[in-house]
Design goal:
Helices cover about 30% and strands about 15% of the residues. The chain is built from 6 helices and 5 strands; from the N terminus they run αααβααββαββ. About 5% of the residues are buried. By secondary structure, the protein is α+β, with helices and mostly antiparallel strands. Strands 1, 2, 3, 4 and 5 form a 5-stranded mixed β-sheet that branches.
Length: about 280
């Protein structure tokens, strides 16, 4: 324990750490604290002073530098033009401007006063009907007819006989007027009628046979169906059922070529599918 004389001379650190381990870092930090604070204050004051006085010092040094002498601006003096060379010919003058186009001439139309005439003095001109002029050719010159042509009235013949057009006797695949069922509808109606007439054969049902069959047939000039055959079949009784259904079709409206009834061949697809 310190006596009164030692306590009077001792610092706050000595009193606080009396009887304690002074080799511990806290004692050293507290002892050096005042020194660190003083050093930090001096450094902060110096930095502040440098920031305050640095612009003044820079301005002072700038004023001390020698100034460059100002350059005198010289006045530009225009030079005289070079003398003309009399040996060279002068340049040709520019071409004259084109004269303006003349104003358009005014066309004067003379007015013809109407003349009043009697009805019998007026020549009537008949205007042809437009239907008569459809097949006529308009020409700008007068064409002279052939006066040397033979007189057709002297030719003899049967003038009341109808001229029949030649139509080849064969089976057509496409004609001007295709055969149709009595209700019309084209190929779609034909396929629908065949599909409606078919019945699924039991053998095909047991074997689960499905697919599409292509069948061909001919419609003769009387509208009857003939020459029915399967082009691509499936078997299992489906080919025979398709032929039977085609033969049940009603009488067709026969096809025509050049106005005459002819035989026409059809090839249609028939689909079999188990519902």
């Amino acid at each position: 324990m310190m006596d009164n004389a030692q306590i009077a001379k001792a610092s706050m650190n000595d009193i606080v750490f009396e009887g304690r381990n002074k080799a511990y870092g806290a004692y050293v930090l507290r002892r050096l604290y005042q020194r660190h604070v003083t050093r930090a204050l001096i450094i902060a004051t110096a930095v502040f002073a440098l920031l305050v006085f640095f612009p003044l010092i820079a301005q002072y040094l700038k004023d001390k530098l020698p100034k460059e002498p100002k350059k005198n601006l010289q006045e530009n003096v225009l030079m005289d033009a070079p003398p003309l060379d009399d040996t060279k010919p002068p340049p040709p003058p520019p071409p004259p401007e084109a004269p303006p186009p003349p104003p358009p001439k005014l066309t004067t139309i003379k007015f013809t006063p109407p003349v009043v005439k009697k009805d019998e003095e007026v020549k009537k001109e008949e205007v042809p009907d437009q239907e008569e002029l459809k097949d006529k050719t308009v020409s700008t010159v007068t064409v002279k007819g052939n006066t040397d042509a033979p007189d057709l009235s002297e030719l003899s013949g049967t003038g009341d006989k109808v001229v029949e057009e030649v139509v080849e006797n064969k089976v057509y695949t496409y004609v001007e007027q295709m055969p149709q069922l009595p209700g019309g509808g084209g190929n779609g109606a034909i396929v629908a009628a065949i599909q409606k007439a078919t019945k699924y054969p039991p053998l095909a049902l047991r074997n689960q046979v499905e697919g599409r069959i292509f069948v061909s047939f001919t419609v003769n000039p009387q509208g009857d169906v003939s020459d029915v055959k399967v082009v691509k079949g499936l078997g299992s009784g489906l080919d025979e059922e398709t032929i039977r259904a085609v033969k049940t079709l009603p009488k067709f409206i026969p096809g025509k070529q050049n106005g005459r009834a002819v035989s026409v061949s059809f090839t249609v697809p028939i689909t079999f599918k188990i519902q």
